[in-house]
Specification:
The protein has 224 residues and is an alpha/beta fold. It has a domain of 142 residues. Helices cover 37% and strands 17% of the residues. A seven-stranded mixed beta sheet has the order 1-8-7-2-5-3-4, with helices on both faces. Strands 6-9 form a two-stranded parallel sheet. α3 links the parallel β3 and β4. It is globular and about 45 Å long. This is 1-acyl-sn-glycerol-3-phosphate acyltransferase. Keywords: Acyltransferase, Transferase. Pfam families: Acyltransferase. InterPro entries: Plipid/glycerol_acylTrfase. GO terms for molecular function: 1-acylglycerol-3-phosphate O-acyltransferase activity.
Length: 224
Amino acid sequence: MLPLLVRFVLGPLVRALYRPEIRGVENIPATGPVLLAPNHRAALDTGVITFTAMRPVKFLGKAEYFTGRGLKGKMMAGFLGGLGYVPVERGNAQAGLAALEAARKVLDAGGAFAIYPEGTRSLDGRLHRGHTGVAALALATGAKVVPVALSGTENLQPAGKRIPRRAKITVTYGAPLDFSRYEGQDSSPAIRRSVTDEIMYAILELSGQEYVDSYHKRPDQSAA
């Protein structure tokens, strides 16, 4: 019931309250496997996509969010599940493989899955080099990729604010990208890199951000 509540009750309520400008939502195939590939501006990006895509979308979520005890923990796990989160462990190479496998199961079942190619939120507002996981999924499953540009979401919840405020945000869904021409070549690192770069260029065209041809490095991390 929770996914239906999110889609048909909470979704329209949020759209009416925050009034996001939604462009190109018709570019999302109504059926069949599809990968949404958004830029990443803010922690609330996932919610924005959930409430604007007009189709149930799955995302990866930290497993610890689903393991809380008591009624509060169960309610949190249920709410996150309703938003489309799939619990996965994080923090090592094996966890990364498990995350890709979880995403692949969604796509193999004909679902919609969203993955942020940059891997983390942009702290400087620029679009950074994409990791090749998005290409690996597209090539392995045959799913079409819909590039997505989010704008203004970084203003929804300023530091220190618990409740999102109204801000001008735009969500642009681009034309689907079809990589069936690379069928059978999903194990090639060069092909994965080429597909990822094509996806990032499509996001760049939609978002108008400055592009940085290096992985995003957070203050306490080394480059990926």
